[in-house]
Design goal:
mainly alpha; 345 residues; 3 domains; disordered C terminus
């Protein structure tokens, strides 16, 4: 009796398990890789710094934000599109993206307005992603057009960018706390469910029907607003208290120059004050001299004189002697004649 062996189906020998066929709550132990695990661990460390020390490390945050935006955008363009009719490898695209991202980071760090705009744009994109998730879960008929996610991302991104330029300290603290919490959430999502939450958010950007997710995914997603609130409180009460990004750090030489200018200004002020004091003293002395020696004097009353007032006593005596020699007069008459001018005087 002859039996013929039918060829086995390749799908049965090497079954290909699609992501849709996996149980959303299945245990993912044993499927981790070394490189993603190390990268997620480093990202978790950066997320802690962003979340709790974002405003304190203002310059570093500006540089990292520009580096991230520039690297991601240039990497996607170089990897997805052909450059000079050549398809670049992942390593080449990553190198080009890292170089241009470094330049973008320097620009955002040195030009404060550009850095603040990027920080506000980052906060708007995070709020837009949360809005898309809420629209998918809370709406009965969620929109399936690609223009809806694009409009939400651009609209909220620009709104929060302008608000950050207006209220810099408040929205910088909110943005750093939210972005740091998002990085920690994504890193945790890899160790818990191998980026199940990231894949779900990616489907929201594509406006495709949502696949069922496990409750663990929602628990990980719920950690994001909680960490954001904790980060804002920590920065407001501890790390960012008494610090302002508008203060400029000056060098030692510039500080010495400022001290010299302040001293010169104080010397000039003291010299002017001495001059004013001396002039005031001279003016006071002049006033006192003017009061002691008046310019206008009162003239005394003129004395009224008579003809006999100008006669000298010797003339009167000689006149009396001549009268006595010529004709004797009574002594009383002579006395009255001699004392007459004195009585009238």
């Amino acid at each position: 009796m002859e039996t013929t062996l039918e060829p086995l189906d390749p799908a049965l020998v090497n079954p290909v398990v699609k992501p849709e066929s996996l149980d959303p709550c299945v245990d993912s132990q044993g499927r981790y890789k070394v490189v993603p695990s190390v990268v997620c661990s480093m990202c978790c460390l950066f997320g802690v710094i962003y979340c709790f020390f974002g405003y304190r490390c203002f310059k570093a945050v500006l540089f990292l934000t520009g580096l991230m935006f520039g690297s991601v955008v240039i990497f996607m363009l170089c990897y997805k599109e052909r450059v000079l009719d050549t398809q670049l490898s992942v390593e080449a695209a990553a190198g080009i993206g890292l170089g241009i991202g470094t330049l973008c980071g320097l620009v955002t760090m040195l030009v404060r307005s550009v850095g603040l705009f990027m920080i506000g744009l980052l906060l708007g994109l995070l709020v837009a992603l949360a809005t898309l998730v809420g629209m998918e879960e809370l709406s009965d008929t969620p929109p399936r057009s690609v223009w809806v996610p694009l409009g939400v991302l651009l609209g909220l991104g620009m709104i929060f960018a302008v608000l950050t330029l207006q209220w810099q300290r408040l929205f910088t603290t909110l943005s750093t706390a939210a972005f740091g919490a998002a990085i920690i959430t994504v890193a945790t999502d890899y160790f818990v469910e191998l980026f199940a939450l990231v894949l779900y958010v990616g489907e929201r950007l594509k406006a495709t029907p949502a696949a069922p997710v496990c409750w663990v995914t929602w628990a990980v997603l719920g950690a994001w607003p909680a960490l954001t609130a904790i980060g804002v409180l920590v920065q407001w009460k501890l790390t960012a208290e008494g610090y302002s990004h508008t203060k400029v750090i000056i060098s030692r030489q510039q500080r010495r120059m400022q001290v010299m200018r302040i001293r010169q200004r104080d010397d000039r002020y003291r010299h002017k004050k001495k001059k004013k004091t001396a002039s005031a003293a001279m003016a006071t002395q002049g006033k006192m001299a003017a009061v002691a020696e008046p310019v206008y004097r009162r003239k005394p009353n003129p004395i009224r004189r008579y003809d006999t007032d100008v006669l000298s006593p010797s003339y009167i005596q000689s006149f009396r002697e001549r009268q006595v020699q010529a004709q004797p007069f009574p002594s009383r008459l002579v006395l009255d004649l001699a004392s007459g001018p004195q009585l009238q005087a």
